[in-house]
Amino acid sequence: MSSFDLIISGGFVVDPFNQREGYFDIGIKDGLIAEVSPQLDPTLADELSDARGYCVMPGIIDLHTHMSSWLGGRYAHKMLALAGVTTALDMSGPVDSVLDIARDYGAGLTIASLNAVRPGHTVKSDNPNMAELDSLLGSSLRQGAIGLKLLGGHYPLTPEATARAITVANQQHAYIAFHAGTNQTGSTIEGCLEAIELAAGQSLHLAHVNSYCRGSIRPAMTETEEAIRALESNPRIISEAYISPFNGTNAKCSGGEPESLVTKRCLLTGGFPATEQGMEDAILAGWAHINLPAGGAMTLAVGQAGCDYWRKQNTDAAVSFPVNPAEPRFCLAAAKRKTGGFIVDAISTDGGGIPRNVIVELGLSLVKLQALTLAEFVTKTSTNPARILGLGNKGHFTPGADADISILDLERQKPRTAIAGGKVIMHAGYVSGQGSKIITTTTGADAVHARGLTPVIVDLAKSGFYQGRQ
Predict the structure, then answer these.
(1) Is the same domain home to 203 and 273?
(2) DSSP characters for 384-427?
(3) Which PANTHER family match (predicted)?
């Protein structure tokens, strides 16, 4: 019997959790890391993978994606695997749809999901009381979600209801994330600062911090500095930011105008009226990029092709706008606390089925610019996200850890191979992974099993989300 199912040999291994950086072989057995050594005997392995010339890191974990029929769709898993991602957090649900797509279109990833708090859909109004929020959280956990996502920037609640939702989740040690903005502020720096205040010292995941630093109220870098100061002063706030120039929102219109407040703001930013006609004009002019399926993935379409698809979907299509200035994106990715840790915990994409899965492409640009070291890049894209989600077996190459591995071409700034649980799910642009594992709580395990999926149980009370940074 062989000692290893697979040996990855000769790669430049970066594992900040174990303070390891150099040329090592990695032996994998039964889906786990078996040994890391400067040289392993190749005769002891069933298979060999030559990683000479490549960087080998713990599997990339994207803390902000979309993988449901509402946002992201059936191509999300394939697109994430192509981006070198092995684990991801869906940030809006609905969880039933996330699980169905994971079962039917999975590409070997491990995923978690949050259910949206959305007025008129999952709650009755913009001011749900504690009992309604508690009921929504309970049903979401039973369905397999790990918590809730407040969609404030798009579909806001009152400040009071927002604070109640954060409290309800904290009381049950459930995950709670917030696209900042209430019906008093919006998806701006003011909404960001309000979100931190409404958390009142409780745990909260503040989503895509860069999206509040677009210069809509004050100069973009002034807003960025405000966000950095506020986050450093509030260590219970977990955060991520993405580094793509494009955002993602919904183009659905009713009553002659977009339903999403973010979409309205993006149209106005581009000089178009926040109306259905304004949306059409923005698509034709190339400002609004409709997410259109082509070639087994979602692509960005403008002009008549984008407009035709948007109309064919009765306006209910995802849309992206180039609204993210470069300086805030890069500054937030690199900013550090006085203690040495990062202000923003993770680099994310807000992607999945939204075509901007550029953690590797743009993240490695920061490494080339010496804004981040390779070890820091791995910390922000694997080690920190694993700790936040309570995934003690991910984010490092300790023997016994899950064999989740991303192999990167540093020169081309592209992912070469993604391995999840010891199995190759993507290599050289070809996705071979199948199925999915679902991160859930003990409350949701039965629902996950019922859909024919494998649960990965986490205790969020013991996770970095609640225990803080180490």
Answers:
(1) no
(2) HHHHHHT-TTSSS--TTSB--EEEEETTTTEEEEEEETTEEEEE
(3) COLLAPSIN RESPONSE MEDIATOR PROTEIN, HYDRANTOINASE/DIHYDROPYRIMIDINASE FAMILY MEMBER
